[in-house]
Amino acid sequence: PHPSAGGTRATSLVPCLRQVLATDMSKHMSLLADLKTMVETKKVTSSGVLLLDNYTDRIQVLRNMVHCADLSNPTKPLALYRQWTERIMEEFFRQGDRERERGMEISPMCDKHTASVEKSQVGFIDYIVHPLWETWADLVHPDAQEILETLEENRDWYHSRVPPHSP
Fold this sequence. Notes:
Layout: H1 9-21, H2 28-40, E1 43-44, E2 50-51, H3 55-70, H4 78-101, H5 117-139, H6 145-159
Antiparallel strand pairs: 1-2
Helix pairs in contact: 1-3, 2-3, 2-5, 5-6
């Protein structure tokens, strides 16, 4: 039940747990589709403020806000984004090394001998991050336009560094 309907502390944690689960990448396409629907049907006040007049809409916005935050590294200033990219790629490469040691097939982007960090970041932005942030920016227009611009600049920076004969 909704917390304001006399729910217990435990039941009021359920929406918080759902927000955390919204960071699961297997839910990305579903979250993005729901967000696009919300953009298409959004209601705004006469002053242009987004109107979230029911609990379900508010929860959906919170879920997508957490998902955007989870996928926000490419929206940060380039120096910070590059630091986070280096960290995540180190994590991927460690995973690839463990898979190699165990004789397993190496997961995509986890083979330090063949992965192109630059190409992977361009693909990540083009297919995952940009569609999400572009839709979010449409929902909260104009409040996320600067974030979207930074994302596009970072994508262009990585694209300019993709090795010339990269498959």
